[in-house]
Structure formats: structure tokens, C-alpha cells
TrEMBL record:
Signal peptide extent: none
Protein name per UniProt: Major facilitator superfamily (MFS) profile domain-containing protein
Protein's cellular compartments: Membrane
InterPro entries for the chain: MFS (IPR011701), MFS_dom (IPR020846), MFS_trans_sf (IPR036259)
Main localization, broad class: membrane
Length: 501
């Protein structure tokens, strides 16, 4: 590529980032903040509305039931009405629901309905975003690098969510509203504005995109078209049904769901566990209203420490996996560390505050395996099959979000305290390590022996080959982490190898 062509390509890339990735990164941050703000509000909300542990656990987890039920239908609707309009509609919808959370009453049914609706609206957002990116970015590496910006926005939401929530909770009593009501209102309204902005301005495709010149529109369109034609000739362009039928995404979805029992359980119970640690109690029921106001804000702020550690270790793990080209141990080790830390937390609760808090922080290390899990479908699926396969795996894995929060709440309600729930989470995480260790070895051995309906017959290569590991490094990790230069050219050498197949 000449210097002039390179400059044109970089200019187009900057325009794509400004028009698409800016909107999608903001959407991702608000998505995770609206999804998790119930956790930050939990200390105040549970006391004010007198919600039991079981009610709170079920209310947290029922979000993922809506997420599971509407995942595939939402994906199909995106293809019918257009991804740009559908993403705007979903964002507007969940922003309205998130804002309505400020009107919760002591009737648990209201909590269940709103959380279910929130999950239903959020269900199709990320698959629709992926499908929309495929209209503008050509090839696996370019697409992976673009998705990397979205992946980077996810831990950012966790890092900024805690101090923002803590500050809003301290507004308790202002204009006769509780702090948790201000939290839902002021985090839900920006999402509504973003949904309207996306609906009105997000381009449906490169042709006719006002932010590109006529020549740039044609260039982007031709690149995407050429890439799809090339993949079809290689046997890599698979249909939507290929992704749905592929047994590997079902197996991966089940494993990610099992690991998600602990992940999502921790997401919604961390502030309450922190409150328990700093107060030396198993619940907030013995605290005065003023103590709940202050301690709830402190617990929300301290809960940001495990979330921040999770974001940091996820980034470092993905970066090291990218540099070494190894996925197997980068997926398993964080899960194993998380299981060990949960055992430490269970043993220290009620005995040593500092050790318990250290165990809670370290347990969030298990989150670092999540990008590696979701990177695997890109190594054996492509095109429409990748979008549908990812949606299927995401749908299946949602059961972990349903089970995890409710399980912790139900067990805590029965036995009191968090020791028994953390012992159960230790066992769950340990089994997740064993499951993925067996699954990934089985996939490797099977793929090396013979093809199946989503392997070599579709133009893929053996997992034991150097090229397959290059594909892992290029697509899977970069799908959650952009390269240091921020360029869409993630792995030029790998792309050249694919082009000359």
C-alpha cells in the first residue's frame, strides 16, 4: 500500500471511529452502568423497601431471564428492520425502563417486571452492534480491532460506575427522593438521550453515509463486499443457521453460563458483601437510616475496588495472551485464582476484615477469562454464522445470571451470612475450571482428527497448527482489546496469509 493510500485509509478509519465507535462505546458504558446500578443501590433500597435477600436475588437474576428469552428474536428483528434503527430503539427502551426503576415500591412484583423488561431490551444490543460493524469493517482483524474499543469500554463502566453511584447515593433526601432513586434517574436519562441520538444519526450502511465522501462510501462498500466474496470462495462465509446449529457454541455457552453463576452473583452482591464486612454484620437490617445512607455510599465506593481490579487484570491478561499467542491457560488460570480467592473469602468472613476484603478483590480475577471464552467462536465461525452463533451462546450463558444472584440470596436467607454462599461459589468456579479444561482439550483433539459442520469443511484449520494459533491471537484477543496504535490493521502479516490462501 502506498503512502497516499495509507493516508486515505487512516482518514476513513478516523471517520468510522468518530461516527460509529464513539456511539457504541458510550452505549456500552451506559449499558453496563444501567445493568449493574441495582447492585450499588442495594444497601439503601433493600432497607427502604424492606426487600428480603431472596427477593433481591431473584430481582437481580430475572434480568437475565428476559435477556435469554429475547436474545434470538431480537437478533432476527435487527435483520428485518435494520441494525441502526433497532439499536436506537433498544437503547431508548432500556433507558426508559432503567429510569422507571426510580419508581419502585415495596411490591416485589414491580422489581421483577422492570428487571425482566430491562433484560429484554438489552438482549439484542451487542449482537446488533456486531452485525452493524460488519457493514463497515472488512475482514476478521479489522472487525476485531473495532470490537476491541467496545471491549475496552466494558471495564471502564465498572471503574467509573462505583464513584458515580456513591456520590448519587449521598443525595438521599434531596427533593424528598431517596439516594437510590436519584441513582436510577440520573443514570437512566442519559441512556434515553443516547437512544434518540443513535436512532436519528447512526448510518445504516456505508452507501449513503453522510460522514463519508462518495468515493469513501464506495471504497468501504467494495472492501466489505470483496471480503465476503473472498470468504465465500474459501468456504468461510457461513449462514445464520450454521452458527445456530454449531454444537460448539452451545457447549461454550453452557460453560460460560456456569462460570457466570459466580460472576453475576458477585456483580450484584459485592456491595452488600462489602457492607457486611465493614459493618461486621450479615445484613443492613440493624443499621439506622443515617448509617444506611452513609454506609451504603461507602460500600458502593469500596465495591469499585474489586471491579477496578477486575478491569485491570482483564486488560493485562488479554494483552499477555495476545503477545504470547496462547489462550488455554489464559482462560483457565483466572478462573482457578478466582476459586481460590473465594475459599479465602469464605474462611475470613466474620474473622478478619482485611483478609476477607482481599479475598473479595482477588475473586474478581475470574472475570479475566471472560474475553477469552467469547473469543473462541471467532476461530471457527465467520460472517452471519458468527453473529448468530454468538447470539446463541450469549442466550444459553444467560442462565448463569439468573441462577447466581438468586442462589446467593436464597442460601444467605436460609443459613445467614455469606460464608455458605461463598463456599458454594468456590465449588461452582472450580467446576468451571474443570469443564473448560476438558472442553478445550476435546475441541483441540477433535479438530486435529477430522472436520465437522463448523470446522475444516468451512475452510478452518487445525487448532494445533501455527496458523490456527495466529488466528486465535489475531481475532479472539483483539476482539476485546485494541492494539496500541488504535489502528484497524491488527495483524497485517496474518491478513496477508489469509489473502494468499
Amino acid at each position: 500500500m502506498s503512502q497516499e493510500e495509507s493516508m486515505v485509509t487512516n482518514a476513513v478509519t478516523r471517520k468510522l471511529h468518530l461516527h460509529i465507535m464513539l456511539r457504541f462505546c458510550l452505549l456500552t458504558v451506559l449499558n453496563h452502568m444501567d445493568r449493574a446500578n441495582l447492585a450499588y443501590a442495594s444497601v439503601q433500597l433493600n432497607v427502604d423497601l424492606k426487600f428480603s435477600d431472596s427477593v433481591y436475588g431473584l430481582g437481580s437474576g430475572i434480568f437475565f431471564l428476559g435477556y435469554m428469552v429475547f436474545q434470538i428474536p431480537s437478533q432476527l428483528m435487527a435483520e428485518r428492520v435494520g441494525t441502526n434503527r433497532w439499536i436506537g430503539f433498544l437503547t431508548l427502551g432500556w433507558g426508559i425502563v432503567a429510569t422507571c426503576m426510580a419508581g419502585l415500591t415495596s411490591n416485589p412484583t414491580h422489581l421483577y417486571i422492570l428487571r425482566f423488561l430491562l433484560g429484554a431490551f438489552e438482549a439484542g444490543t451487542f449482537p446488533a452492534m456486531w452485525a452493524h460493524l460488519t457493514k463497515f469493517y472488512a475482514g476478521g482483524p479489522d472487525l476485531a480491532a473495532a470490537w476491541g474499543f467496545i471491549g475496552a469500554a466494558q471495564p471502564l463502566a465498572q471503574v467509573i460506575g462505583a464513584p458515580v453511584a456513591s456520590g448519587l447515593l449521598l443525595t438521599d433526601g434531596f427533593l424528598n427522593l431517596h439516594g437510590w432513586q436519584w441513582l436510577f434517574l440520573l443514570e437512566g436519562l442519559p441512556t434515553i438521550c443516547l437512544g434518540i441520538w443513535i436512532w436519528l444519526t447512526l448510518a445504516p450502511g456505508p452507501l449513503g453515509a453522510k460522514f463519508l465522501s462518495a468515493a469513501e462510501q464506495d471504497s468501504v462498500h467494495q472492501q466489505v463486499k470483496h471480503n465476503r466474496e473472498r470468504m465465500a470462495k474459501e468456504g468461510g462465509e457461513q449462514s445464520t443457521m450454521d452458527g445456530i446449529r454449531c454444537w460448539k457454541v452451545w457447549a461454550q455457552g453452557f460453560g460460560s453460563g456456569w462460570a457466570g453463576i459466580m460472576r453475576y452473583g458477585a456483580m450484584y452482591w459485592t456491595p452488600l458483601i462489602v457492607f457486611s464486612i465493614i459493618k461486621g454484620k450479615s445484613a443492613a437490617s440493624g443499621a439506622t437510616p443515617e448509617q444506611v445512607k452513609v454506609s451504603g455510599a461507602v460500600a458502593a465506593l469500596l465495591a469499585g475496588v474489586p471491579y477496578s481490579w477486575s478491569a485491570l487484570v482483564t486488560y493485562l491478561n488479554a494483552r499477555h495472551a495476545k503477545r504470547t499467542g496462547e489462550m488455554y491457560y489464559h482462560l483457565l488460570v483466572p478462573l482457578a485464582i478466582g476459586a481460590l480467592a473465594l475459599a479465602v473469602l469464605a474462611g475470613a468472613l466474620g474473622h478478619n476484615t482485611y483478609v476477607a476484603f482481599f479475598g473479595l478483590i482477588l475473586s474478581s480475577t475470574s472475570q479475566a477469562s471472560n474475553p477469552l471464552e467469547w473469543g473462541y467462536p471467532a476461530t471457527y465461525l465467520s460472517g452471519p454464522a458468527l453473529s448468530s452463533g454468538w447470539a446463541v451462546a450469549n442466550c444459553i450463558s444467560a442462565y448463569g445470571g439468573v441462577v447466581g444472584p438468586y442462589l446467593i440470596g436464597a442460601v444467605k436467607a436460609k443459613y445467614g451470612g455469606y460464608t455458605i454462599p461463598m463456599i458454594i461459589m468456590t465449588a461452582v468456579n472450580s467446576l468451571a475450571v474443570v469443564y473448560f479444561a476438558i472442553l478445550l482439550r476435546f475441541l483441540s483433539a477433535k479438530k486435529a482428527k477430522k472436520p465437522d459442520n463448523c470446522d475444516e469443511e468451512n475452510g478452518q484449520t487445525s487448532p494445533d497448527s501455527h496458523e490456527w494459533r495466529q488466528q486465535e491471537s489475531c481475532i479472539a484477543r483483539d476482539a476485546y482489546m485494541p492494539n496500541r496504535e488504535g489502528s484497524l490493521k491488527v495483524n497485517d502479516e496474518h491478513q496477508q496469509n489469509r489473502d494468499t490462501k
